[in-house]
Specification:
Layout lengths: L13 H9 L12 E11 L2 H11 L3 E4 L7 E6 L2 E7 L9 E8 L2 H10 L9 E2 L5 E6 L5 E6 L16 E8 L2 H11 L3 E6 L8 E5 L6 E6 L13 H7 L1 E6 L2 H10 L7 E6 L5 E6 L5 E6 L19
Parallel strand pairs: 1-4, 5-8, 9-12, 13-16
Antiparallel strand pairs: 1-5, 2-3, 3-4, 6-7, 7-8, 9-13, 10-11, 11-12, 14-15, 15-16
Length: 313
């Protein structure tokens, strides 16, 4: 079963799916502090040294301490965006996804707003030595989410990083309507694009953050998608639960990795995605996919037009 957007382009049942994509696109109310971008993806690792080589050497991210968990390590692509690598707990299960972090202008204010909208089981706001503030919770399917108010305003790419910009994250979703109730209706995420391998399916649903151009990609699993529940094992979850780094020119980025011998043992591409954007995939030692993607489409996408402006470098 193919795992990402790289089969020949096919037309989808666009009108019906666009209508479905628009459902729940309005925020619950005014007064919500801005949610502006992707902060980070946190993943589990069974071998911290092997993960260090992948994120620090292959991807060129800057290594730093983890103020949230002394056992963890952060790998920065710019001072505000990073991958957080945590030692895998014994009971972590097949998924290596720990949580997704989003950037907000006001962590304390957003937590207060969520409580006022009857979101429960939120952690207290914590403060890091660099000035970051954050709190956490869960989405309707139990995925851990964090909202981070960065202590730094600097977004310059880290020297040596293959990319200085995280443009999207994605994770497995089983019940689109339930997730839309949280991300779209409550938080105000906005439709961006959707696609599928086959006309009668929906495999990927992308929605930009309410106040920025980064996006969250539902990787649909189960009824209505091409990925059946009985085929979702640890390897497949590593493909579904992923991080995407923006590159201006895919040929230049991949040539750099080849020339400097910085390829991960498992990789594929470059190839053209069904969204019309060049992409290449690399995998950390535990199978979590890191996707390089150009910022804008160079071909007409299948299934849906883009309904919001692309992120910028």
């Amino acid at each position: 079963m193919p795992s990402f957007r790289t089969l020949p382009l096919r037309r989808c049942a666009a009108l019906a799916l666009i209508a479905a994509t628009m459902i729940g696109a309005m925020p619950a109310g005014t007064g919500r502090p801005a949610i502006t971008g992707i902060s980070h993806l946190a993943v589990y690792a069974t071998d911290m040294a092997a993960s260090d080589h992948f994120y620090r050497v292959v991807l060129g991210a800057r290594k730093g301490p983890d103020p949230e968990d002394p056992a963890g390590i952060r790998y920065y692509f710019n001072p505000r965006q990073f991958v957080e690598v945590l030692p895998a707990p014994k009971d972590h299960g097949p998924s290596m996804l720990a949580h997704v972090g989003y950037t907000t202008a006001d962590a304390a204010g957003l937590r207060t707003w969520l409580v006022a909208h009857e979101v429960r089981d939120l952690t207290p706001v914590q403060r890091g030595p660099g000035g970051d503030q954050w709190f956490g919770g869960r989405d309707p399917e139990g995925n851990r989410v964090q909202f981070v108010q960065p202590g730094s305003s600097v977004t310059t790419a880290e020297k040596g990083a293959i990319s200085g910009r995280i443009i999207h994250v994605g994770h497995a979703v089983h019940d689109r309507a339930k997730q839309d109730g949280f991300y779209r209706t409550l938080l105000g995420f906005r439709p961006y694009w959707f696609g599928a391998f086959h006309e009668d399916k929906v495999d990927w649903v992308s929605q930009q953050l309410p106040d920025g151009r980064d996006w969250l990609e539902y990787m649909m699993v189960g009824e209505g998608s091409d990925v059946s529940l009985d085929k979702v094992d640890a390897r497949q979850l590593g493909v579904l639960n992923h991080l995407s780094l923006g590159v201006v020119n895919m040929q230049t980025a991949v040539t750099t990795l080849y020339r400097e011998n910085r390829l991960s043992p498992r990789h594929d591409g470059p190839q053209m995605g069904l969204d019309g954007k060049w992409q290449a995939n690399f995998y950390d030692p535990d199978g979590t996919r890191v996707e390089l993607m150009e910022y804008s489409a160079v071909m007409k996408p299948c299934c849906s037009p883009f309904t919001a402006k692309d992120p910028v470098p």
